[in-house]
Amino acid sequence: MSRTMSSTPRSDTSQAWAGGLTAFAAVLLFIAGILDFFRGIMAIANDDVYLSTPNYVFKFDLTSWGWIQLVLGVIAMAVSVGLFTRATWARVVGVGIAALLIIANFLSIPYYPFWSLTLIALYAFVIWALCVVRRED
Fold this sequence. Notes:
The chain is mainly α. It has one domain (2-132). Helices cover 78% and strands 0% of the residues. The chain is built from 4 helices and no strands. It has helices at residues 2-45, 62-84, 88-107, 113-132. Helix 3 (88-107) runs antiparallel to helix 4 (113-132).
């Protein structure tokens, strides 16, 4: 009997904790998606904003890179809406899109180093928040 009473508050506490982390991940994913969206618009509209690095190993056309950032940012914002509903598919896709965006931001470090590192940190927190929560049956 004592065990049953003590397991109920833990369950409620763990559900609140899981909901809080999922909301945290959703908000971070939405904010980082907006930043990537605007970063993509900057690259498409005027790629003189970015630093030019002639000897960088990964060379990309900044306009096409802008489209990649824009599309990934829109997907990240859409997935964050799914995270607010606590959909399981959104957690799985959220980890995947955050991982893709970490790679994309890593490849764009020479063009815009501060924002790339900032977004890498945000997406790492998103992955952590989505992976640390256990699914309740």
